[in-house]
From TrEMBL:
Name used for this protein in its record: TolC family protein
Coiled coil: 144-174
Localization per record: Cell outer membrane
A Gene Ontology term for the protein's cellular component: efflux pump complex
Record-linked Pfam families: OEP
């Protein structure tokens, strides 16, 4: 019974997996975008980096406050032919930087600007991912529409080929004309195979983009032919530019980048400014725990860089045994050529600051160009959509006329097959024009920094 139970469990588990893998995931565009954003590892990484940079800001705030530490020193000496000696010492130490030439403030500003940059990078990455999802989504809808058109066309061509073979058997047509109709049928079937390959490739790439399991089956709710209400709005270019200047996060991002690089440059240039700090301690010492001999002290520290060298100086005042034992000590340490990186830091930060400044100054023209290009694409795409619709309607009428002419014997079936090919090309151009217009609207919204679908140029028809 035991092997039978194990086998039954494995069988039920495999059937459960097959049932789950056979379930379809019905998607509209909004659901696809939400799933992609939720599953994106890049966005998760940016979000984690944002948290880390927030912690860095907290760390820089901490530098304004004094540091404290508690030390417990224990010592035991064993010397032959002499009495053993033991000592205990517990001390509380405080240290506070009182002057550093503004480096703490600059470091805090740089950290805060870096945090702002991470927020802007996250917003830009979300918009970029949403546009990629739309591009892939519309591509799948386009291929689905084309497969439906080509499948219907194949059925019509098969019917015409059947009639042509009957006419050939009756001697009413030639074998050459039958072969021409057959060739046209094969041509459409070849187009269908190519479209199916593109459709399957697009679906698999879409699942990769959405980070879905490979066994997931997708079903899209929208239709490119009759699922959207297309409209056109005449929007003045200057209004779009003004909106972009108010809405594009790149302006705040480049400003934050410029301020961050400027702060880092100022920190690098202030290498020679000394850092001054004061400290104090309170301690108890003795030969056993709890030590009872009190002592306290104060210190003054100075550290600075002199070119590639460094210097550190400290002075200490110590009072023991109720101020009956006092000491004043000082020490100076000079590091020789232990700060060679100061020139490199100045050069690097200067170049970064200048580059950030140039980028900010050029951003106005870049945004203007992007808005102008997106608006031109939007206008041209609408004109192309109108022409493609008119051309498709014209060929559809021609196809119906040719069909009637063939039925009454006024034209050859070969001419109908030729018209079918032109009709398919016109329908394909119509679908591509609709996809291009959808993408041009999204590109225009991204160019002005507006939320996608906020211009309300395209509306999804209610099902």
């Amino acid at each position: 019974m035991r092997p039978f139970i194990i086998f039954s469990f494995i069988l039920l588990y495999s059937v459960s997996l097959q049932t789950q893998s056979s379930e379809k995931l019905f998607l509209d565009l909004k659901n696809a975008e939400d799933i992609s954003i939720e599953n994106s590892p890049e966005l998760r990484l940016l979000n984690s980096q944002q948290k880390i940079k927030g912690l860095i800001v907290t760390e820089n705030w901490r530098n304004y406050f004094p540091t404290a530490s508690v030390t417990w020193f224990r010592n035991s000496n064993v010397i032959e032919n002499e009495a053993d000696s033991r000592s205990q010492r517990v001390s509380l130490n405080l240290d506070q930087v009182i002057y550093d030439g503004g480096r703490r403030k600059l470091a805090l500003q740089a950290a805060m600007y870096d945090l702002d940059l991470s927020k802007y990078d996250l917003l830009l990455s979300i918009n970029d991912l949403r546009f990629k999802v739309r591009n892939a989504y519309y591509g799948i809808l386009s291929n689905l529409a084309q497969t439906e058109l080509q499948a219907r066309s194949i059925e019509r061509q098969k019917e015409q080929l059947k009639f042509a073979n009957r006419e050939l058997s009756l001697g009413e047509t030639t074998e050459v004309q039958v072969l021409q109709i057959s060739n046209r049928l094969n041509e459409i079937q070849l187009q269908l195979k190519k479209t199916e390959i593109a459709l399957n490739t697009g679906i698999e790439e879409f699942k990769i983009l959405m980070r879905l399991p490979s066994a997931t089956q997708l079903a899209l709710k929208d239709r490119i032919e009759d699922g959207y209400d297309f409209s056109f709005k005449v929007i003045p270019e200057q209004d779009l530019i003004d909106l972009a200047f108010r809405s594009r996060v790149e302006f705040d991002r480049t400003k934050a980048a410029e301020l961050q690089s400027a702060s880092e440059f100022e920190i690098a240039k202030a290498y020679y400014i000394p850092t001054l700090s004061i400290g104090s301690y309170l301690a108890s010492s003795g030969d056993r725990y709890e030590p009872r001999q009190r002592e306290y002290g104060f210190n003054f520290k100075m550290s600075m860089a002199i070119g590639p060298n460094s210097i550190q100086d400290s002075s200490n005042y110590i009072s023991r045994a109720e101020d009956t034992n006092r000491a004043l000590t000082s020490s100076t340490t000079i590091g020789i050529y232990d700060n060679l990186q100061y020139k490199r830091k100045i050069a690097q930060s200067a170049i970064a600051a200048e580059q950030a400044k140039i980028t900010r100054k050029q951003l106005d023209d870049i945004i203007r160009i992007e808005v102008h290009k997106a608006l031109q694409n939007y206008n041209v795409s609408w004109q192309a959509l109108i022409l493609a619709d008119e051309n498709a309607d014209s060929f559809e009428k021609r196809l119906k006329i040719k069909q009637r002419q063939v039925d009454i014997g006024e034209t050859r079936r070969v001419d109908l097959a030729e018209t079918e090919i032109f009709y398919l090309e016109a329908q394909k151009a119509k679908i591509n024009a609709r996809v291009q217009f959808l993408l041009s609207v999204s590109q225009l919204e991204l160019a002005v920094g507006a939320s996608l679908d906020s211009l309300r140029i395209i509306n999804l028809k209610s099902s």
